[in-house]
Amino acid sequence: MIASNVLAIALAAAGAAAAPLAKRSSGQATYYAAGLGACGWTNSGSDFIVAMNAPEWAGGAHCGQTVTITNNKNGNTQTAQVADLCPGCSWGSLDMSTSLFSALNNGNMDDGVFPISWSFGSGSSASNNNKQQQQQQQQAQATSSTYTPEATYTKSSTPSATPTPSSVTYSQPAAPTSTSSYAPQPASSSNSKTVVSTPEWWADVNNACGVKLDAGSLPIAISSSALLAADKLSDACGKWIQIKNNQNGKELSLQVVNYWAGAEGDVALGEAYKRLANNYENPETIESVTWGFIDGQGL
Hints:
This protein is of the alpha/beta class. The chain is 16% helix and 23% strand.
C-alpha cells in the first residue's frame, strides 16, 4: 500500500512537471477611459479590464477571458478580463482601465506606459470582473458594438502640413481564390528578418486582396522585398506585419490588404501613418520604418 501511494505521488509529480507553461506575451501597458467595449458590455474605470491588440484579439475569441499581467518594472501582478479591442496597440500590448493601470504601477499614472508580460488564465477570477452585468448586457444587445478608440484616435481631419496623403494609381492584385474570416494568429511577435524603408502615405489603402478583415485591423500595402519576392506577394494578403517608426519608437501591428510594384521594400500606409507619427492631426514626414512579418504565419 505504501509503495502504491509512493508510486502514485511520483507519477503525479512527474505529470505536474511535464505540464506545459502558459504562453506569455510581452508589450506595453497604456490606459484608456473604459466604457462600452467591443465585447458588447459596458465597464467603468474601476473594473479590472483590458483592451487587446488586434493580432491577438482573434476576432473577439478571447472576450471575457482572464489574463494575468506583470509590470516588468516593479514586478506587480494583477488579473483582469478581456473586454475591448485596441486597434492601435502593437502585438503583445494591452490598453487598460485606469484602476488596473494604477494597481500595476503603484498609483503612478504619469508614466503613461510601462513594459508588461502577460498570459491567459489565472488561479482565481479577475478582480472587479462584473460578470453578472456583462451577461445581462450581452442578452440585451442583439449585435456587438464597435470599438471607440481614445480621443487621439478619433480625430478625423485632413492634415495641412506636409506630407499630404497621395492618391495613387496602381495595378490591383487579382482576387485571391479563397478568403479567411481572420488572419491566422501568429505564434510570436519576434522576427529577425526585417526591412528598413521610407513609408508612403496613401489616402486610401483599399482592400484589393479581398480578405475579410478584423474590425480592429489597420491596413498596409507592400511591395517586393528581401522578405517576399514579387511573384509571391499575393501570399501576404491578410498576414500580420509589425512596423516601427525609427524616429520615435512607435510600433503598430498591421494587416496586408494590398501590394504593388513599388521600389524594393516600399510600404504604403493610411491611418497607420498618422498613428505612427508624432502629431496625429498634422503628421510630420516619417523618415524611415523597420518592418517585418510576424512569425508563425507560414511566410
